[in-house]
Model the fold of this input.
Amino acid sequence: MPANTLAIDIAGLVCRLVLPSPEWARPLAERYDAFRADPSQPPAWQVELREDGTIAQATPGWIQHDGPVTDFQVSWYRGSIDLAARTAWVTSPRTDLAASAIERTLGYICMQALPRDYDALLLHAVGVVIDGRGYVFYGHSGAGKTTVAGLAQSHGEVLSDENVVVRLADEGAVLYSTPFWGHSTPAELIRRRAGRYPLVGLFSLVHAHAFALTPLTHAQAVTSLLTTEKVATERTESAGAWLEVAGRIVERVPVFRLDFPPTAELWPFLARQMG
Done:
């Protein structure tokens, strides 16, 4: 593989990154080391990173759709994603912003491609592994995702505090880590590790004074999961695939409303409730 390329695997979706030079590749190779793809796996997507320091910052950003092509600019990052050709390009003005440019692009690709082609969803959620079992916590801004990620640091492994993947499998549904973490997460708390774990449950978070776990019906669960990501609904085909996969996931994995106070007693409570 050329020195300016890097192939990464996110829950089975393999993307080849083509970078401006080997100098751009070195820091990214370290960042995504745990997610390096098996060299025998052909990439499903190719993403080209282009250096361009001449683009003015877009405030606010914009996004436009024309058939299978999505053009966008967010901050200094301008790019285009072609869902039919499975190719994309994005610009970065300098190397220290390269990862942000790439992850914005990969995030959009995952949101669209995972439900269409992989029986999987990219969720804006916290993934936690305790005793080899996966838990997913989600909710609107302020619901408690950051709080749960903090409480989990000394009780389990946080796979990501920003995005995880839930994918259907023969054994039910599985939780995959991603390399995507929150932009404001302290560097010392970030651990980019590839992992695949059986999923115990999905938990819609609500701040409360006492613990309570309430099962959601199928319809409630799918509607609740819609709060985790809405970009896929911009496209009819993606929206249909998203709803179909979400419906199958909640048939195999329990979904709950979790009322919780911000204490470490959360983990003994869940252990008792989930068995």
User: Anything to note?
Assistant: Residues 9 and 70 are 22 Å apart (CA to CA). The mean pLDDT is 94.
